[in-house]
Amino acid sequence: MKLTLHHINLCTENVPRMDAFYRDVLGLDRESGGLPVLEKEKGYAGDVAFVTDGRVQTHLAQRDVRAGFSTGQIVNPVSHGHIAYRTDDIAAFKAHLDSQGVPYSDWGNRAVAGWHQIFFYDPDGNVIEVHQVAAD
Fold it and tell me: Where does the record locate the signal sequence feature (predicted)?
């Protein structure tokens, strides 16, 4: 079960303003490949812009403090943002969290088609996502 940094998610009330800032001020590019397909009917219907430094994506997501309630999940990844890692074995990673006594919310594919996502808190309350892309 290997983890690699995949993206950082920042939440905002104004996605176009954040998108312009990260592209114009920081010089990031609009991400064009490997974009997730958002499942807007399953729990999170917010606007999202995707920018990149060429290696790691930054997802600029419309803040939704009710997304956790909408999906029946305790951890809400779009209230304050999160950092995300990609794994090659989500089942093994969930078993690892269970063995460490770390509770998590299993969003499955409620937010992104083809991604199995789980979310949990670090000791300071920061949200962490780990996801696996479904095999083709």
Answer: none
The pTM (predicted TM-score) of the whole model is 0.71
Q: How far apart are the first and last CA of the chain?
A: 19
Can you tell me the distance from the alpha carbon of 77 to that of 17, in angstroms, rounded to the nearest whole number? 20
Task: Convert 13-49 to b/e letters by CB count within 10 Å (16 or more is b).
Answer: eebeebbeebeeeeebeebeeeebebbeebbbebebb
H-assigned helices in the chain: 15-24, 67-71, 90-100
Helix, strand, coil fractions of the chain, as percent rounded to 5:
20, 40, 45
Per-residue pLDDT of 86-109, as tens digits, reads 999 999 999 999 999 999 999 999
Residue 79: DSSP 8-state: S
What region does 26 belong to: left with phi over 0, alpha with psi -120 to 50, or beta?
alpha
- How does strand 57-62 pair with strand 3-12? parallel
| Alpha carbon distance 15, 34 (integer Å) | 20
Domains of the chain with bracketed CATH? 3-133 (3.10.180.10)
